[in-house]
Amino acid sequence: MEIDLERVRDVLDDGGAVPGTFRVLVDRLWPRGIAKERLSYDLWGKEVAPSSDLRTAFHHGELSFAEFAERYRAELAAGGAAHDLLGAARAAGARRITLLYSARDAEQNHALVLRDALQEELAEHAR
Question: pLDDT tens digit string along 32-60?
Fold first, then answer.
């Protein structure tokens, strides 16, 4: 299973995903200024998003991206939500997961960390 990233604003009104793709909005809060009808998604995975406290600390500059990523991975490991997301994608018959995120920074955001964690879980499952 492949995992892609797409910024929400880049896929508005695109008519939906390619068949076999499971689209997951991975933000805890709905993207500001976006009407729900404009975004095609299969699941709003609030539970795989970073906790509000962690997200706030990162956005206010209290954590470096490396510190944020480490803490977020710990949250993912403790909660099991990433495993559940993979299960939902499998149940839907998906061959690809697209993680939809609203962060402006494409180089340092939670979706990158989540993608890496999901890829590691898939690799472990394949062994």
Answer: 999 999 999 999 999 999 999 999 999 99
Which value, to the nearest 10 degrees, does the dihedral of the CA atoms of residues 40, 41, 46, 50 take? -90
- For residues 112 and 50, give the distance between their C-alpha atoms in angstroms, rounded to a whole number: 12
Which residues have C-beta within 8 Å of that of residue 1, sequence separation ≥ 6?
86, 89, 90, 94, 95, 96, 97, 122
Question: In the structure encoding, which two tokens stand for residue 41, read together?
Answer: 């998604």
94: Cα within 13 Å, side-chain hemisphere: 24
3-class DSSP state of 21:
strand
| CA dihedral angle for residue 50, residue 69, residue 5, residue 33, rounded to 10 degrees | 40
Q: Where is pLDDT greater, at 123 or 17?
A: 123
